[in-house]
Amino acid sequence: MVEKEESVISEEEAAQYDRQIRLWGLDAQKRLRGSRVLLVGMKGLGAEVAKNLILAGVKALTMLDHEQITEEVTRSQFLIPVDSSEKNRAHASLERAQYLNPMVEVKADNENVENKSDDFFLQFDAVCLTCCSRDLMIKIDQLCHKHQIKFFAGDVFGYHGFTFADLGVEHEFVEEKPKMVKPSQEISDGPEAKKPKIDPNETMMVKKVLISSFCQLKDALENLLKRTPNDYFLLQVLLKFRTDKGRDPLPECFPEDSELLLQIRNDVLDSQGLSSDLLPDDFVSWCFSEMAPVCAVVGGVLGQEIVKALSQRDAPHRNFFFFDGIKGSGVVDCLGVK
Amino acid sequence: MMALVGSLRKELAEAVASSRVLVVGAGGIGCELLKNLVLSGFVHIDVIDLDTIDVSNLNRQFLFQKKHVGKSKAQIAKESVLKFCPKASITAYHDSIMNPDYNVEFFRNFTLVMNALDNRAARNHVNRMCLAADIPLIESGTAGYLGQVTVIKKGVTECYECQPKPTQKTFPGCTIRNTPSEPIHCIVWAKYLFNQLFGEEDADQEVSPDTADPEAAWEPEEAAARAGASNKDGDIKRVSTKDWAKSTGYDTVKLFNKLFKDDIKYLLTMDKLWRKRKAPVPLDWNEVYNIESCDSKAEFTVVGLKDQQILDLKSCAVLFAKSVETLRARLAEKGEKAELVWDKDDPPSMDFVTAAANLRMHIFSMNMKSKFDVKSMAGNIIPAIATTNAVIAGLIVLEALKILSGTVEQCKTVFLNKQPNPRKKLLVPCALDPPNPNCYVCASRPEVTVKMNVNKVLVQTLQDKILKEKFGMVAPDVQIEDGKGTILISSEEGETEGNNRKCLVEFGIRNGSRLQSDDFLQDYTLLVNIVHCEDLEKDIEFEVVGDAPEKAPQKLTEDPEKNIANGSDDGAQPSTSKAQEQDDVLIVDSDEEPSSAVSDINMEDRTQKRKLEQEDDHIRAKRMRVEQPADQDDDIIALD
C-alpha cells in the first residue's frame, strides 16, 4: 500500500504545496507523496487527470497507453506538443507532464493494458482507467478489489462524462469538524470563554471508516432499474458501442454511428422492458468526441476523488458521478451497492 | 443531418473560431481557462494580468514552471499555450485592467469577456465596462473546494453589483487597541504596528491604548475628559509612534517595554474594562529574556512544517527584537522619508507580525499561533488547488458556448459543492435572475442615499472611502447639484487637490444635498443623496441606506446570497497594506435555490434547504460554507 511517509517535507515542497497544505493539511500531503498511481488512456480526460495528480504531488504516476496519436487527439490534449516526434500517446505526453512537477516520478508505458500481468497492478495504490472497454474495466476492478487497490474509471463522450470509484471493502479517512469549546478551560483562544460555544477558529479531525460502502463495477453496471438517471443508460449505450465497434463514435462517421447508437439504445432499453423515452433520440447529437471543457470538469472531479482516496482525507463520493455539459448538472449517484 | 466539428455543431464551431475573447487574469482560473479555450477551438484571445509568477502558484497554475518565477503571468501563459496550440492568436498584456487605456472601445472589440480575477475592485470595474460596452461577461470564483460561475448580460441578467456583497470585515478600534479577544485582533494590531513603525502611518491604525473607549468609562463624562486631555482620538501621547521610535533609535528593549509592559499597565488602569474580562498580563523584557529555555520542548520531534511550530515566549521576544532590527536597518538604508510596505512573503515582515501578535496573544491569555497560521490570517491566504479551478474553468467555457450559440436564456449560475447536496447534486445549476431595478450600477439612473456627518467627513474621504472603495469608482468626478454645478472633485490630477482636507459642509453640502458622481472610463453616473447624521457609531464614517449595518465582527448567519468566491491572496484584513488591495473570501453559497422560473424543485425541498442552512452555524474563520454530507452508515471513531 502507500509507502511509509518520510517525516520531513522539504523547503521546496513546503513552498510549492503551500496553498494546498493549507487546505487539506500536512498529513494528507505526506500520504500523497507516498502514493503510486496508474493512469490508463491518455486522451483528453487522461491528460486532465494526469495534470491534476502530478500537480497534487503524488510520488509516481505511470501513464499507460498503447494507441498512436491521431489528429483528433492533438486537438484535444494539451500535453502532446504539436511537433512531437513520438507516435505513442503516452510517450508523447511524457515531457510536458514531467514539467508540471519535477518532484513527481512520471513514466510512460506504451503497452496495451490488456496484456499486463496481474502483478503489474500490484505496485500501485490507485488505478484509474479511461478509454477501456466494459469487460476490461470489470476485470481490472476485480483484481484491484481483491488487492485493496483503489479503483477508478472515467470517460467523456461529447458533452457527457462519468466517473466511477470502487474503494474496496473498507476505506478509512479523516474529516475536519468544528470543535466544541469547553467552558472551564483556563487558557483558550480568548479571555471570555465562560460558556461552551462552537469556536469557528478551532477544528478537530474525526476519523471515519466506510465498510462495504462500495461495490464492484460488475454489480454497478448490472443494475438497470427504472429509476436510475438517464446518464446511466447513456453510459450503458456508449460502452456497448465501444465493445461492438472497438472505438467511440467519430464525428466523421456521424450518420452511421448515430444510427448504430439509436439501435443500441433500443436494444439496451428493450431488454429491460424499459421505454426508449428514457433516452430520447437527440442524445446522439451530444456524445461525439471528447469536449475539452467537459474533460476539464470530469477530470477535475475524478482527480480530486483520487487525491481524497490516497490522502485519506474527506468523504469520497459514492459511487458514480455523472456530468451533463448541456444542463450543467453534476450528480453523484450510488448504484449497485447493497 | 447535423455536421459536427469535433463535438460541436458546425455553426457553433464557426462562431467559436471567429470570435474574439478577453480573459481577465492569468492565475488559477486563468491558466485552466486559456487551455480550455484553445482546445475548444477559440483562436483570438486577449489575456491580461498585472501579476508576476510566484512559487506558491505552481501547485495549480500549470502553465508556469519554477524557472518562470518572477516573470509576467500573462506573457508566460501565452507562451505555454502556444506550445500545444501554435495556431492560437493570443495577445498578452502585463497590465492592470483598470488602466484607462482599456476603455469602452477596447471592450467593444470582444464577443465576450471572461473574468478570472481574485479581487472585488477589478470585478466591479470590469462589470461596469462590460455594461457600458454591452458585452456579455462570464464571472467566476473559487476558494478551496468551492467555486461558482455566472453570466452577466446587460438588461437580461443581474449585474455583478445588483446584490450587495458583504464588505470586508473590520474591527472596532477599541477591540484592536484595548480589548482583543481573538488571535485575529492581535494580528491586525501587529500589522498596524508595522505600519506605525516602518510604513505609512494611518490615523485609522492606532496601536496605543484608546482612552476614549466608551466601555472604559464609569461615567460618560469621564471618557470625554480623558479624550480631551489627550490628543484627538484618545492617544496617550502627542508624538507619532514612528517619531518616538526614531527618537530611541528603534531600541528594541525600550520598544518592547513600551508596547508590552507600559501600554498594558495603562490599560489595566482602565479597570472597568476588566470587570468581566480576564485582565492582560504585562511582560517585562528582562524577565522574559531571562527565562530558562525549556528543555522539554527539545524532546518533541518536529512533525509538522518548520513554520508550523508554536514558539515559546522567549523565542517570540527574541524574534521580535531580531525583526525590528532588520526592518530598522532596511528603513534607514532607504533614506529620510522612506516607508516600508508590509508583504507576507517577506520573511522579516512576517517574523515581525508573528512575534508581535504572539506576544500580545500571550498578554491577553490566548493560545499562541504558529507562523504558518499567522501568515494565513495576516496575509489573508485563500487555500487553492488545481482541481477546483479546472472544474470552474470547464464550466466557464460551456457557458461561453451557449452565449455563442445565441442561447443566453439557457445560461446558468453553477455552483460547485464540496459534497453533493440532498438532491445528489455536486454541481448545482440555477437560473439567472433578472436585473435589480434599484441596482446602483445597472439601473437606468443609478441613485443611492448615504448617511454621514457633513461637519466631519472630508472631501478626501468622500473620494477614497465612499466613491472608490464602496462604490467601485476608479477616477470619480463629482459635481454638487446646487444650481451652480460646483465641482467638488475632479479626476484630473491636481485640479481639486485643495478641496481634499476640507469638510463637506464647507461647500454648502447639508442634509438633502445631491452629488452627481461620474466615472468617465466606466461610463457610470451615480447620484448620491446626502442624509446628514450625527449619531453614527464610533469608527463608522458613513452608512449606505439599504445596506446591512456594518458591524464587526460579522458572524455569518446572514441571509444566503449569491456570491462569487473571491479567491484572493495577499489582502489585508482589514487592509493595512497600501499595495494592491485584494479582498478575502466571500461566501460561496452552494445551496442556492433556483428562481421560481425553474420548476424542477418543489417547495418541500426549499424548506429543507433553509433548515439545513440555519443549522449550519459552524462557520470557520475562513468564512467558507461547508456542505454537510448526507449521513452515512459508518463507524465513527473520534481522534483525541
Structure at a glance:
The complex is a heterodimer of chains A (338) and B (640). With 338 residues, chain A is an alpha/beta fold.
Provide structural commentary.
- The complex is a heterodimer of chains A (338) and B (640).
- By secondary structure, chain A is an alpha/beta fold.
- Chain A folds into three domains: 11-166 and 291-332, Rossmann fold; 171-211, no CATH class; 217-286, no CATH class.
- Chain A has eleven helices and ten strands.
- Chain A has an eight-stranded mixed sheet, sandwiched between helices. In chain A, strands 7-8 form a two-stranded antiparallel ribbon.
- The longest helix of chain A has 20 residues, at 292-311.
- Chain A is globular, with a radius of gyration of 22 Å.
- By secondary structure, chain B is α/β, with parallel strands linked by helices.
- Helix content of chain B is 33%, strand content 13%.
- Chain B contains 18 helices and 17 strands.
- An eight-stranded mixed sheet of chain B has the order 5-4-3-6-7-8-9-10, with helices on both faces. A six-stranded mixed sheet of chain B has the order 13-12-14-15-11-16, covered by helices on one side. A two-stranded antiparallel sheet of chain B has the order 1-2.
- In chain B, strand 4, helix 3 and strand 5 form a beta-alpha-beta unit.
- In chain B, helix 2 packs across helix 16, helix 7 crosses helix 14 (347-363) and helix 14 (347-363) packs across helix 15.
- The radius of gyration of chain B is 27 Å and the shape is globular.
- At the A-B interface, helix 1, helix 2, helix 3, helix 4 and helix 5 of A face strand 1, strand 2, helix 2, helix 16 and strand 9 of B.
- Strand 8 of chain A pairs antiparallel with strand 17 of chain B, so a sheet runs across the interface.
- Chain A: Pathway: Protein modification; protein sumoylation.
- Chain A: GO terms for molecular function: SUMO activating enzyme activity.
- Chain A: Heterodimer of SAE1 and UBA2/SAE2. The heterodimer corresponds to the two domains that are encoded on a single polypeptide chain in ubiquitin-activating enzyme E1. Interacts with UBE2I.
- Chain A: This is SUMO-activating enzyme subunit 1.
- Chain A: It is found in: Nucleus.
- Chain B: Residues 547-635 form the SUMO-activating enzyme subunit 2 C-terminal domain.
